[in-house]
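Our preliminary data section would be incomplete without showing what the modeling component actually yields. Below, a chain of 212 amino acids is followed by its predicted structure, encoded as tokens that our downstream tools consume directly.
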Amino acid sequence: MKQIILCSLLIILSGIITANGGIISDFDSGDEGWGVGGGLLTYSNSGGNPGGFLRFQDTVAGAATFLEAVVPTKFLGDLGVFAGGTIAFDIKASPTTSPLDFVGIIDITGNGVTMTNDAIPFAAVTSEWQTFSVTINATGWGVSEAQFSSILSDVTEITLNLEANNFAIELTDLDNFSLQTQAQVVPEPSSFALIISGILGTIYMRKRRNQR
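Predicted structure:
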């Protein structure tokens, strides 16, 4: 019985350990070297989702110059392990009265080739924190498998478009930007509940058999 409990706990803990992997910027201790294009960047140590966050301020109304976030070097290099994984981030913006379809576009450049994906549906960004994610695969990013592998083998730049409003100088906030591998899928709380229920049921049945 002890072996059953131990094995089950190891399974649960392995899921937790895996979930803590990947690359993430949670901005709880600073801006972590992030850059900005087409605007200004400021760091706040509170008000994020939760903790600190980055605020990107547009300096030109409209889409003549895109407001974009530029990832730091820790997200660059050989990212082949993230094929089939996800890019995720939290975002909010103000104002959102004249939404643009550019916000959420991610460009990944490697070996001289850029692949692009739009992680946010049109007009989906609001003034409240929301989480968006996109799968990292060749089909979704509009490139061949060969190009996909080549890009991920030596990523030199990743940018996230933050141009959320067409006729205003908007503020777009970013938190919890992460790269996760396919293996880092975290079971939902309901899944953990099922696992624990299964463990308890197994223990109960084994105990009843031993009492006979």
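Residues 68 and 161 are 4 Å apart (CA to CA). The longest helix spans residues 189-211. Preliminary results of this kind motivate Aim 1 of the renewal.
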